[in-house]
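At this stage, I put together a protein sequence along with its fold in token form, as given directly below:
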Amino acid sequence: MRALYCFLIIFSMFFHTSLWAGSTCDLLVRKFLSPLQLKYSNRGLYIHARYQKINIALYKGQISYDQAYSLSKTVAEEELSHLGVDVGKLKTLQLEPHLYLSKEAAPKRALFKITADDLPVAKQFSQDALTHPEMKSYLEDLESRGYSLVIDHTIALDDHMVLGFMHGESKTIALMPNATWEVFRHEYRHVLTKELLDSIPDLKGGVKTISQLEMKNLEKIDCLGQIGYSRTTLSEYLSVQDEIKALKELGYGPLSSKVYEARGYDWAQRLNDLKSISWQHMTSAQKTDLLKIRVQQVTLNPFLRRLILVSAGAFLGVYYHKELQRFVIKLKEGEYALFEWD
């Protein structure tokens, strides 16, 4: 009993310090519920830092676009080799790299093409897209739809530092070599959504049928379309839903920073559609959705989670410390007198 009372006292004193309580609870949530994200982060930060160095040199005018392309390609080859891809056997596609998309007369460059046969050995637990156990089946399906997967190492040299994008005209999904599984799922969903939206005339005419899942997705974006959102926004909405699903499969909690960041893409796209409309000219549905987004931005923010943990720690510390003190004092008045209080 003495050991139990000592433990309760120490536990109470610990939670009395609200900052420790909040930070510790948050650490436990991130470490034990999302082990993969922490394992990936070290390698991801290393690659990000190397591309960031090239990016800074490019925009300071210290190197040219061609030099930035060459340097980023070297980093990509090293990362692909690290993942287990035989770079020497990869074929290439002549495409416009992301680096040049904003320039007139953008030169086409040889970008590495990844087929299902080029994938490295899959790992049972992997956050990297190329080594994920389901990547082969997804890539085979992508190829059956006439799309290709390419490694565009210049994506990271954009100010936005994205990890991938879907290009409808060239029928390609472009990824960074260190792109994660949820990024691929996001872009893969863009392909499916494009096909879904393109097939609407055939669906209405009874020429084509779709799965029950795609029918539900069509109903979702139809509701958003009635609000007045653009086709791009509808596609982004479904892609974000798939990305969040992939993140949860990887171990991220619904209130994690990664899930909140993913939701932010959808919110930003919808807010961009609404910003050109004044409040007076908005429909009732648009006003409702705008307010819903604003509320979600606040209530789902990871910072709020940390604030709740800190507040809960402070409350528990103060409450249980006082309750335990009363309990021990009562013991002193009875048969057991285990503690002396000043």
In short: DSSP finds twelve helices and five strands in the chain. The beta strands are 91-95, 109-114, 148-151, 164-167, 172-175. The CA atoms of residues 233 and 270 lie 6 Å apart. Confidence is low (pLDDT under 50) at residues 15-20, 31-36, 335-342.
